[in-house]
Design a protein that fits this description.
By secondary structure, the protein is α+β, with helices and mostly antiparallel strands. It folds into three domains: about 35-115, Helix Hairpins, CATH 1.10.287.90; about 120-265, Immunoglobulin-like; about 270-370, Orthogonal Bundle (Cytochrome Bc1 Complex, Chain D, domain 2), CATH 1.10.760. It is about 45% helix and about 15% strand. The protein contains eleven helices and ten strands. Strand 2 (about 130-135) and strand 3 (about 140-145) form a beta hairpin. It starts with a helix and ends with a helix.
Length: about 375
C-alpha cells in the first residue's frame, strides 16, 4: 500500500516538474499598464510588497533567532523586565513612518484617479444583463456591445478561440493620448466596468451616475470584464476597448455617423416576414438566447420556454408590451431602452415564427414606434 502511495506521489512530482518546464504562458502580476494611473497602481503594489517582505524578514528573523539562541536547552535564562521606554518609542515610530511613506503616494494616486476635469471626450456607459451600452456624448453615437464568442464554443462543440469570452461585436473605440471621461450607470443590477491595463475599475449602480477616466498612451486592443457578480451570465459580459490613432478614430466616427443615419432611415421601412425572421434570429441570439436558450425551450421556471408559449402565440400587443416593459418580480427585464424599433420588431417576429411557433405575423417597426409614445 505504501509503495503505491510513494509511486503516486512520485508521479505527481514528475508531472509538476514537467509542467514547470513547459512553454505555457502564465503570469503572476498585473497586465502591462498603458495609462499613467495603471503604472502608479503597479508601482505602489510593487513597493508595498517589498516593504512587507522587508518587515517579514526582520520580524521572523528576529523571532527565529531569539528562539534558537535563547532557548532553555542551551542554558539561557529569561530576563525579567516590564517596561522599556526606548523600545516602545522605536516600535511606535518606525511603523508610523512606514505608514506615512505608503499613504502619501497612495493618496496622491487616488486623488488623481478621481480628477475627471477637463476631458477631451465623454462616454456614458450603461450596464445591462449582460451587455454594455456606449453613448458618445459629443458625437451622437450610441451602440450596444455584446459577447461575440460563437455559441458552439460556449457549448464545447468547437475549439476555444484565442479571445474566448473576451470578444465583442462592437468595441469601445477611443483615440490614443486623449483623456476619456466615462460616466457609469446600470439599468438593472450592479455591474462593474474593469479594464486592468487602464487601471480603471468602477461600479455601475442603478439610479446613480459614477464617473472616472483614462488616457491610453499606446495604440492597441485592451480587454476587461464586468467585475461584479451581476447574474446568470456574469462571465459572458466582456469589455473590449480599441485605442486608435487620431486619424483612424476620426474615420471610425465618420463611419458610425453614416451607420446611424442609415439605421434611422431603415426604421420606417416595411420588411417582409422572411427578412424580419432573419434579422430577428441575430437579435435573439445576442439578446435572448442566454436565458431562453437557442432552442426556445428556456430554463423553467426562471426562464420560461418561448416555444409553444401562450404569450408568444397569443395577441401580439401582449408580447410587445412584455418585451418593451418586462415583468415585475421576474427575471424578464424591459428592453425598451436596449433595442431599437427595428430590432424589437424583428426579434418578436422571429419568436412568433420560430421552432414550433407559426403565427405567420410580421411585426413592423412602425408598430413598436407607435407604442413608445
Amino acid at each position: 500500500m505504501m509503495s503505491k502511495l510513494i509511486k503516486k506521489i512520485g508521479g505527481g512530482l514528475a508531472l509538476t516538474m514537467y509542467s514547470l518546464l513547459s512553454h505555457a504562458e502564465y503570469a503572476i502580476n498585473f497586465q502591462k499598464p498603458v495609462t499613467e494611473t495603471a503604472r502608479q497602481i503597479s508601482g505602489l503594489y510593487t513597493a508595498t510588497m517589498w516593504i512587507i517582505l522587508g518587515i517579514a524578514i526582520v520580524v521572523y528573523g528576529a523571532m527565529f533567532w531569539s528562539i534558537l539562541k535563547h532557548r532553555k536547552s542551551v542554558g539561557h535564562k529569561a530576563a525579567h523586565f516590564h517596561h522599556n521606554t526606548m523600545v516602545e518609542i522605536v516600535w511606535t515610530t518606525i511603523p508610523f513612518i512606514i505608514l506615512i511613506a505608503m499613504a502619501y503616494p497612495a493618496t496622491k494616486a487616488v486623488i488623481e484617479m478621481k480628477d475627471t476635469s477637463s476631458p477631451d471626450m465623454t462616454v456614458k456607459i450603461t450596464g445591462y444583463q449582460w451587455k454594455w451600452e456606449y453613448d458618445y456624448q459629443q458625437d451622437g453615437i450610441k451602440f450596444m456591445s455584446v459577447l461575440s464568442t460563437p455559441r458552439d464554443q460556449l457549448e464545447n462543440k468547437a475549439a476555444k478561440g484565442e479571445n474566448y469570452l473576451l470578444e465583442v461585436d462592437n468595441p469601445l473605440v477611443v483615440p490614443v493620448g486623449k483623456k476619456v471621461r466615462v460616466l457609469l450607470t446600470a439599468n438593472d443590477v450592479i455591474h462593474a466596468w474593469w479594464v486592468p491595463a487602464f487601471g480603471l475599475k468602477q461600479d455601475a449602480i442603478p439610479g446613480f451616475v459614477r464617473d472616472s477616466w483614462f488616457k491610453a498612451d499606446k495604440v492597441g486592443t485592451y480587454r476587461g470584464q464586468c467585475a461584479e457578480l451581476c447574474g446568470k451570465d456574469h462571465g459572458y459580459m466582456p469589455i473590449v476597448v480599441e485605442v486608435k490613432e487620431q486619424a483612424e478614430y476620426d474615420k471610425w466616427v465618420a463611419d458610425q455617423k453614416v451607420k446611424v443615419a442609415s439605421a434611422s432611415q431603415d426604421e420606417g421601412k416595411v420588411y417582409s416576414l422572411p427578412e424580419l425572421v432573419t434579422m430577428g434570429e441575430k437579435v435573439y441570439t445576442a439578446t435572448c438566447a442566454p436565458c431562453h436558450q437557442p432552442t426556445g425551450k428556456g430554463l423553467p421556471p426562471v426562464f420560461p420556454a418561448l416555444d409553444g408559449s401562450k404569450m408568444v402565440n397569443g395577441p401580439k400587443l401582449d408580447q410587445i408590451d412584455r418585451v418593451m416593459n418586462g415583468k415585475a418580480g421576474t427575471a424578464m427585464q424591459a428592453f425598451a431602452k436596449q433595442l431599437s424599433d427595428k430590432d424589437m420588431a424583428a426579434v418578436i417576429t422571429y419568436t412568433r415564427n420560430a421552432w414550433g411557433n407559426k403565427t405567420g405575423e410580421a411585426i413592423q417597426s412602425s408598430e413598436i414606434k407607435a407604442l413608445r409614445k
